[in-house]
């Protein structure tokens, strides 16, 4: 059981880190760009919100499998396709939780507006410097929301993992699968333990987020 | 002004229709919902087809792992019959008063080790090494009897299998893993692969694992459902047993 909990935490942490790297530039581009493709990319990013996880799982099974270019590359490099591996789960989770990172970030970036950027530019700040020293600190709230939401959402992932995970202890047997297994094999005491733990954890996280948001709003008003 | 009698009229029509439908239900034969273990799905479909030739009725099949179906039934899922992949779960339903006190062994499953591309698999356990079978799929041994049997078979191998063991949620997903090429070989039910044009398999001898007796029970909800009872009896008929044998099971 601790295995499953640790694995889920590891998966959520890694996924969140990858999403930060991908999500920040993507959200910035979506907030600032005037490109024709903007709406299309934006729609694509939001797709995992409305797609059934099994649809994602199905396509991942095919696109990471042994007959796909990705699978063949991975077979050459690692000796096996990416399905049923921890790496495969990370890829799946990144796709699955992408909107949870990008949306809050994009909203914050948009709410900053151009004025602070112009002011920074007149003070001879380079764009990158402006982004790191002005934009990111001003987007604290959105960043935090994005990080927490991606993390929690990944913790709860089930459909995708069921289809591409293969229930390997220590590799792909995450929390949600462990609960499912305990329920099916009638070990309800263990299922209760994890499930209740998740309920409590989720509640605390959401409560903390609300409190932090209120605090940061007061901070901005000052 | 004249809307009211109109709606009233429509209401009357619908009332009449529902009356007619409820009257015609027993004439058309009752609906029967059967919960079938994943390994027996295609065979069950054939059985229903054979049964339909002599009876008019409406039989709906739901399939999944025996563990999942068992839990659904325990929690009041509206099934009339349960064709499990084991005998433990039907027995428990009888003990808990959810099923009628009559357990029928309708088939005995045969385990097979199947590979899509590796002919060596026909040599059996000796062929199971990391070089040829990097990843091997079995059904979840906790919930699927075929998975538990696969674990027994693997335990009898000296030295132990050294590759990665992947678990399918049930025997159907386990087969899908191997058929899609995501794993090199899988322990599946003989019935799943017997008629396949491609692939190689080794039929696991009975002696090295607990026999896979599959039990069926009638659920309390179906006590008065004639069609459900008729289908349950049909399971042990000569016709049905022949279909079951041809599908790759043993019968008594």
Automatic annotation (TrEMBL), chain A:
It is found in: Cell inner membrane; Cell membrane. It is a multi-pass membrane protein. It comes from the Bacteria. SUPFAM superfamilies: MetI-like. Its main location: membrane. The keyword Cell inner membrane applies. GO terms for cellular component: plasma membrane. CDD domains: TM_PBP2 (cd06261). Residues 5-211 form the ABC transmembrane type-1 domain. GO terms for molecular function: molybdate ion transmembrane transporter activity. InterPro entries: MetI-like (IPR000515), MetI-like_sf (IPR035906), ModB_ABC (IPR011867). Keywords: Cell inner membrane, Cell membrane, Membrane, Molybdenum, Transmembrane, Transmembrane helix, Transport. The chain crosses the membrane at residues 12-31, 43-62, 82-102, 143-165, 191-212. Gene3D superfamilies: MetI-like. The keyword GTP-binding does not apply. It holds the Pfam family BPD_transp_1. PROSITE patterns: ABC_TM1. NCBIfam families: modB_ABC. PANTHER family: MOLYBDENUM TRANSPORT SYSTEM PERMEASE, MOLYBDENUM TRANSPORT SYSTEM PERMEASE PROTEIN MODB. Part of the binding-protein-dependent transport system for molybdenum; probably responsible for the translocation of the substrate across the membrane. Belongs to the binding-protein-dependent transport system permease family. CysTW subfamily. This is Molybdenum transport system permease.
């Amino acid at each position: 059981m601790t295995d499953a909990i640790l694995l889920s935490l590891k998966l959520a942490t890694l996924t969140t880190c990858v999403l930060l790297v991908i999500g920040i530039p993507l959200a910035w581009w979506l907030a600032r760009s005037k490109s024709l493709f903007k709406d299309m990319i934006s729609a694509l990013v939001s797709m995992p919100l409305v797609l059934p996880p099994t649809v994602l799982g199905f396509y991942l099974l095919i696109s990471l499998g042994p007959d796909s270019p990705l699978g063949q590359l991975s077979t050459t490099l690692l000796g096996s396709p990416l399905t049923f591996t921890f790496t495969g789960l990370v890829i799946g989770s990144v796709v699955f939780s992408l909107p949870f990172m990008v949306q809050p970030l994009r909203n914050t970036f948009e709410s900053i507006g151009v004025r602070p950027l112009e002011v920074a530019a007149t003070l001879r700040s380079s764009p990158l410097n402006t982004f790191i020293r002005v934009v990111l600190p001003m987007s604290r709230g959105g960043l935090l929301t994005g990080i927490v939401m991606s993390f929690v959402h990944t913790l709860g992932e089930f459909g995708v993992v069921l289809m591409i995970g293969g229930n390997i202890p220590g590799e792909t047997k995450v929390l949600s699968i462990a609960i499912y297994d305990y329920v099916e094999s009638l070990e309800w005491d263990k299922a209760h333990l994890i499930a209740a733990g998740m309920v409590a954890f989720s509640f605390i996280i959401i409560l903390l987020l609300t409190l932090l948001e209120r605090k940061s709003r007061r901070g901005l008003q000052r | 002004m004249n809307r009211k009698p109109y709606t009233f009229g429509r209401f009357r029509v619908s009332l009449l229709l529902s009356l007619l439908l409820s009257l015609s239900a027993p004439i058309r034969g009752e609906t029967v919902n059967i919960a079938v273990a994943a390994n027996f799905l295609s065979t069950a479909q054939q059985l229903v087809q054979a049964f339909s030739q002599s009876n008019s009725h409406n039989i709906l099949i739901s399939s999944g792992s025996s563990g999942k179906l068992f839990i659904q039934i325990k929690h009041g899922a509206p099934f009339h019959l349960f064709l499990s992949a084991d005998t433990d779960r039907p027995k428990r339903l009888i003990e808990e008063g959810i099923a009628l006190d009559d357990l029928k062994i309708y088939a005995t499953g045969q385990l097979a080790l199947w590979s899509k591309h590796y002919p060596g698999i026909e040599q059996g356990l000796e062929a199971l090494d990391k070089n040829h079978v990097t990843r091997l799929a079995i059904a979840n041994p906790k919930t699927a009897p075929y998975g538990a049997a696969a674990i027994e078979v693997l335990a009898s191998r000296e030295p132990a299998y050294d590759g990665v063991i992947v678990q399918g949620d049930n025997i159907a997903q386990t087969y899908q893993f191997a058929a899609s090429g995501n794993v090199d070989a899988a322990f599946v039910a003989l019935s799943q692969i017997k008629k396949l044009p491609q692939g190689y398999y080794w039929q696991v001898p009975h002696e090295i694992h607990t026999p896979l007796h599959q039990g069926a029970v009638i659920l309390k909800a179906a006590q008065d459902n004639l069609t459900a009872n008729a289908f349950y009896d049909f399971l042990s008929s000569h016709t049905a047993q022949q279909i079951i044998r041809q599908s790759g099971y043993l019968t008594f």
